[in-house]
Design brief:
12 strands, Rossmann fold, 434 Repressor (Amino-terminal Domain), 337 residues, four-stranded parallel β-sheet
Length: 337
């Protein structure tokens, strides 16, 4: 293993000078510091994590809480983009990533973070109302959450009210008045999307039958397939369906095909998230694009700020805007079939 002493011998300077240069002290000349850092890279020097922890009280290790009810893990397109973007941002600043589990630390996220000596925690997907998460948010670690906020902590959110509102408004302006909404589990995100859906319908004087609003699940095509079949068997079926997300839409699409119905000729469809798959399907799916990369990048930056400037950094809610993606999955209700 390469040590500071090895670098000092090659550069012809003292170990103390090498240590100062690698730790960003300004009392080392610019040219000397540059030479030392280049030599360290060439020699593949890695600082001793235990020694650095003792000296700086920082582990440069960030915990990530990610528990997906559908068990899709990192195959979940939306959250995998968020986590990859956050990971890149953190690694650029010299931080490692550790996934925090409820199975380690006596069924406690907080204890697992303590065990791993995390400097801070990113909470991307989890039951935010659970005891484990509220305990973590109230603990000693800087925490940044995605699409949920805790007092005294920072969060990065997308505007789910706006997204659902714009989608239903688009359907209404296309002439649709029988619009169904299959939403996800009862989370804050879902509540915001339901709010946007009903707001859009109310604005245009549309009364939504109770049977048109169905409790589905995110990232679950099979459940969406079942609900889509039930909706289309109603005495008065919808002419348009807003699906929980782009991936779940695949289940709805299969259900419609099995019933001999086509998109958009027999029923129009819109998704949510704007994942790559939505734009290669035919017909191309009309959806709401969420900037997953931007969400992850801003979450990573904010968490590092909270870690490195704990005395001055202020908790804040950071909103990341999405945008409408028009595809070919919606037809005008006035057009002849």
């Amino acid at each position: 293993m390469v040590t500071i002493r090895d670098i000092s011998k090659k550069c012809g300077v003292s170990p103390a000078t090498v240590s100062k240069a690698l730790n960003g002290y300004t009392d080392v000349g610019a040219e000397t510091a540059k030479k030392i850092r280049e030599t360290a890279r060439e020699m593949h020097y890695m600082p001793n994590a235990a020694a650095r922890l003792l000296k700086t009280k920082a582990s440069h290790n960030i915990g990530v809480v990610f528990e997906d009810e559908t068990q899709s893990g990192l195959a979940h397109e939306f959250f995998s983009q968020i986590l990859n973007s956050a990971k890149n941002e953190m690694e650029r600043s010299g931080y490692d990533i550790t996934f925090i589990s409820s199975m380690i630390g006596g069924n406690s996220f907080l204890e697992h973070c303590r065990y791993r000596k995390c400097d801070g925690v990113l909470v991307a997907s989890v039951d935010f109302t659970s005891r484990q998460v509220t305990e973590l948010a109230a603990g000693e670690f800087p925490v940044v959450t995605i699409d949920y906020s805790f007092p005294g902590q920072s969060s990065v959110i997308s505007d789910n009210v706006e997204g659902a509102y714009e989608l239903v408004k688009y359907l209404i302006l296309k002439g649709h008045r029988r619009i169904a909404f299959i939403h996800g589990e009862d989370t804050l995100v879902t509540q915001k999307r339901i709010e946007g859906f009903y707001r859009g319908c109310a604005e245009y004087g549309i009364r939504v039958p109770d049977e048109y609003v169905r409790n589905g699940a995110y990232h679950d095509p099979e459940r969406t397939r079942t609900i889509t079949t039930e909706l289309m068997k109603l005495p008065t079926p919808p002419t348009a369906i807003l699906f929980p997300d782009d991936y779940s839409y695949i289940g709805g699409r299969i259900a419609l095909e099995r019933m001999g119905l086509s998109i958009p000729n027999d029923v129009s469809a819109v998704g949510y998230d704007g994942i790559g798959l939505s734009q290669v399907l035919r017909p191309r799916l009309t959806t709401w694009f969420q900037d997953a990369e931007g969400i992850g990048r801003k979450a990573g930056r904010k968490l590092i700020e909270m870690i490195e400037h704990r005395d001055t950094a202020k908790p804040e809610i950071i909103k990341v805007k999405g945008h409408f993606l028009e595809g070919d999955s919606v037809r005008s209700a006035a057009e002849p079939r």
